[in-house]
Amino acid sequence: MPIHGIGIDIVHVSRIASLVRRRNVDTLARRILSSEEQATFSHIHEEGTETRKTRFLAVRWAVKEAAYKALFPVKPTWKELTYSSATKGGKPTLFYTPQNNFASRNLHVSVSHDGEYVVASVVAELH
């Protein structure tokens, strides 16, 4: 299938931590997470929860920013994009569920994090 676009983004986790301090972690989560992501986010209940929640938000921020770049000139909202990390040998997934009738795209996503940085890349294919 032809490629519609490619996007990449890098996030310094301390930038998201700063947003969390200013806005509250749950407020920021409600602003940027889809309902599926919010359900996963609400189940983060371990030691170091604040750090894990901040990293969770940083990953979604980077993925969604990369998706915006890959989908341009289409402008999805934060909540129309849903990222799910790889689990049990699967690969990470990114779904775009537009509220209008815009044709969907196949999205391929890759995420890497090391220390204080999260990098995401997205390739959008045309159907």
Describe this structure in words.
- By secondary structure, the chain is α+β, with helices and mostly antiparallel strands.
- It has one domain: Alpha-Beta Complex (Ribosomal Protein L22, Chain A), CATH 3.90.470.20.
- It contains four helices and five strands; from the N terminus they run E-H-H-H-H-E-E-E-E.
- It has helices spanning 13-23, 25-32, 35-41, 49-71, and strands at residues 3-12, 81-84, 93-96, 106-114, 117-125.
- The strands form two sheets. Strands 1-5-4 form a three-stranded antiparallel sheet. Strands 2-3 form a two-stranded antiparallel sheet.
- Helix 1 packs across helix 4 (49-71) and helix 2 packs parallel to helix 4 (49-71).
- The termini are close together.
- The mean pLDDT is 90.
- GO terms for molecular function: holo-[acyl-carrier-protein] synthase activity; magnesium ion binding.
- InterPro entries: 4-PPantetheinyl_Trfase_dom, 4-PPantetheinyl_Trfase_dom_sf, ACPS, Ppantetheine-prot_Trfase_dom.
- Keywords: Fatty acid biosynthesis, Fatty acid metabolism, Lipid biosynthesis, Lipid metabolism, Magnesium, Metal-binding, Transferase.
- Pfam families: ACPS (PF01648).
Would you kindly provide a brief summary of this structure?
The chain is of the alpha+beta class. Helix content is 39%, strand content 28%.
Strand order of the largest sheet: 1-5-4
The CATH C-level name is Alpha Beta
**Shape verdict:** globular
Distance between the termini: 7 Å
Oligomeric state of shown chains:
single chain
SS strand fraction: 25-35%
Tell me how many strands there are. Answer: 5
Using only C-alpha atoms, the radius of gyration works out to 14 Å
InterPro entries: 4-PPantetheinyl_Trfase_dom, 4-PPantetheinyl_Trfase_dom_sf, ACPS, Ppantetheine-prot_Trfase_dom
Domain 4'-phosphopantetheinyl transferase: 5-120
Pfam families: ACPS
Protein name: 4'-phosphopantetheinyl transferase
